[in-house]
Amino acid sequence: MDSLTQIALGSAVGVAVMGRRTAVWKAALWGAVGGTLPDLDAFIDHGNAVLNMTLHRAESHALFWLTLAAPVLAGIVSRIHGEVALFRRWWLALWLVLVTHPLLDAMTVYGTQLLLPFTDYPYGVGSVFIIDPLYTVPLIIGVVAALRLKSMRGLRWNAAGLVLSSLYLVWSVVAQQQATQVARASLQADGINSTRLLVTPAPFNTLLWRLVVMTPTQYLEGHYSLLDASPRIIWTAYDRGAALATQHAKEPYLARIAAFSHGFYRVSESGGRLFVTDLRMGQEPTYTFHFDLGTAQQRAANSQVPVLRSARPDVATALPWLWRRMWGDPVPPPR
Predict the structure, then answer these.
(1) Contact 317, 333 (CB under 8 A)
(2) Which terminus of the chain, N or C, has fewer Cβ atoms within 10 Å?
(3) Strands 218-225, 265-270: parallel, antiparallel or unpaired by DSSP?
């Protein structure tokens, strides 16, 4: 999730666990710090764009390592504030702050390596977008209320924010399952033989869902809103570059994206250069993670590292379409 959301979640968890045992501002402050720490790995340069993508949300998001870090951070905080007697409570609070960060990240589609060092599998439920105000705003309101109201009432506001945001996550999974059922029924009705189906929300909401289907030679994209009048989905097919993927299957960076994306990727060539695209984030024709792997000569000589060639949608057309499509208006997506 975005940094503001993680700060809000960390603060809310810190305040909820510490209660009135310490000043609310201390719990909120250190909750915000703990909620930010795992994402500092974004400042580490691993040498190229593919590694930077696939090694983000790795060790710093692993439950094992965060569990080991929690007592160290709690010891520092309790000594700074002269609250050594509250060490165990700070330990519990900061452990929950640290581990809820990657658990929330795992609700997005990106891929979070929760179980390192035991497995590097990137977990991603994909039921919430990386930025969703309906999740974040209740947390912010609750924390602000806890800071401003000098009574148990403020703590109740904070607890309510946590409950509402958690219920929203539950709702997102329920909505995702509904969209999945509709997508599978539509594929069956259209006689489409799929190998994989991705169901993930469009930006900033959980009403409109983007659907990606992989077949042996193509990928199909469609959209479904929970407010659509008809459950029938309009699919648009694109070449996934299956022959190129087979031909270059041993290319290490292509193989890394193939594994990290759980098979939702395409391979293409242009001007003698090989490209690989993660199809999970973005939509046709703009994708966040589109990598230039270089020419055959460059790859053979290891003379070029992968370069990120991401594309951004035109906000002036994308946002109006998103608003209309979210409410069930079957307008085609901008291209």
Answers:
(1) no
(2) C
(3) unpaired
